[in-house]
Design goal:
Pfam families: Prenyltransf (PF01255). This protein has 241 residues and is α/β, with parallel strands linked by helices. It contains 7 helices and 6 strands. A 6-stranded parallel beta sheet has the order 3-4-2-1-5-6, with helices on both faces. Helix 1 crosses helix 2, helix 2 runs parallel beside helix 3 and helix 3 packs parallel to helix 4. It binds farnesyl diphosphate. Farnesyl diphosphate (FPP) binds next to helix 1, helix 2 and helix 3.
Length: 241
């Protein structure tokens, strides 16, 4: 059911979401912050299903940033547990629904039980052709760009790449998002209006949608609203219409 008049032929190919406000949601209900993250996983289920229904190709979720390690250990442990439990419990169902799981970010720094679940999930879903659920885990855009620069320099030094041939596409193709390219629409919940080190290079021509709603209260209808607003924007990519 569509609550908004969405044109199904113009659904964004790639939606990226900064899932913000779990802590504030929990606080407003006198619950621990971790309860907000648990409720946030429920929203992930709803949003992923809706992306499948609408034909979104890539859904990138900012699940854990390189800066999130600064949070209390209990909160970090809860987030890691939620990730591994989600994958353990749902990867089969996701596979049945043709969802492909991928990640961006340095997952080797995650606890081994998370890395194991992630590797199982990649392996099981790697040939799926439905929605690509791309989890940004221990991800930071500056870190990703720095790694791209290092790899470009290495490949230039060993003669694999000619300095004359380096252009913007070269950089795009050395980032961890190389196979999915830039997001058409970036959504951030909970009122903040910043990128917080998310997809800095890729966001150059993305449309932004900000909502005051906390992530645990975001739902299918809210996603439709974001897509509806996106479809009524005028994307010119720096040119004239
Ligand atoms: C931001 O809210 C949310 C996060 C830092 C983590 C989001 C992670 C999940 C919803 C669960 C991850 C699990 C899977 C399955 C990928 P906040 O804590 O910054 O909220 P606040 O700004 O109100 O404090």
């Amino acid at each position: 059911m569509n609550s908004y008049d969405i044109d199904l032929n113009k659904v964004p190919t790639h939606i990226a979401i900064i899932m913000d406000g779990n802590g504030r949601w929990a606080k407003s209900k006198f619950l621990p912050r971790t309860a907000g993250h648990k409720a946030g996983v429920e929203t992930i289920r709803k949003v992923l299903k809706e992306c499948q229904r609408l034909g979104v190709k890539h859904l990138t979720l900012y699940a854990f940033s390189t800066e999130n390690w600064k949070r209390p250990k209990l909160e970090v442990d809860t987030l890691m547990n939620l990730l591994s439990t989600y994958l353990k419990k749902e990867v089969r169902e996701l596979h049945k629904n043709n969802v492909k799981i991928s990640t961006i970010g340095d997952i080797d720094k995650l606890p081994k039980y998370c890395v194991d679940e992630l590797e199982r999930a990649y392996e099981l879903t790697k040939f799926n052709t439905g929605v690509n659920l791309n989890l940004a885990l221990n991800y930071g855009a500056r870190y990703d760009i720095k790694n791209a620069v290092i790899d470009i320099v290495k490949d230039t030094k060993c003669g694999k790449l000619d300095i004359e041939d380096i252009n913007e596409d070269t950089i795009t193709n050395y980032l961890s998002t190389k196979s999915i390219k830039e997001p058409d629409l970036i959504i951030r919940t909970s009122g903040e209006q910043r990128l917080s080190n998310f997809l800095l290079w890729e966001a150059a021509y993305s449309e932004f949608y900000f909502t005051d709603i906390h992530w645990p209260d975001f739902n299918e209808e809210q996603l439709q609203k974001a897509i509806y607003v996106y479809q009524n924007r005028d994307r010119r990519f720096g040119g004239l219409k």
